[in-house]
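To illustrate the input format used throughout this study, we show a single complete record. The first block contains the structure-token representation of the backbone; no residue identities are included at this stage. The design step must infer an amino acid for every position from geometry alone.
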């Protein structure tokens, strides 16, 4: 078993449509430790983050408002299994920037 700390995704701009930001590789368990989202605009913007296909029951953030020039830090752990996805979308396109950090544990 191998453990690797790494940036899982980003920095990436979040669009106003649902986009997969990270997919757990085969034979791997991922632990999301930190999600950092910054707002680069002069107005508040909302963000939604889901583990699994975006739906009300998979959201860890649901239309959370981030103030102008503000930031949001979300700390895990969020354990994800092989082939599981993390998705994002925003109320305003290309003003929120996301970075996701954690570790991947390769099984076997």
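Output of the design step:
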């Amino acid at each position: 078993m191998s453990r690797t700390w790494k940036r899982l995704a980003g920095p990436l701009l979040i669009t106003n449509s649902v986009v997969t930001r990270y997919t757990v590789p085969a034979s791997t368990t991922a632990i999301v430790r930190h999600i950092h989202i910054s707002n680069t605009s002069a107005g508040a913007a909302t963000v939604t983050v889901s583990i699994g296909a975006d739906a009300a029951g998979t959201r860890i953030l649901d239309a959370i408002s981030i103030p102008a020039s503000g930031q949001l830090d979300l700390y895990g752990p969020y354990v994800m299994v092989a082939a599981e996805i993390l998705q994002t979308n925003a109320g305003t396109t290309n003003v929120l920037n996301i970075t996701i950090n954690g570790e991947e544990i390769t099984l076997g």
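Structural context for interpreting the output: The beta strands are 2-14, 19-23, 28-39, 45-51, 59-66, 71-80, 85-90, 96-106. The two ends are 6 Å apart (CA to CA).
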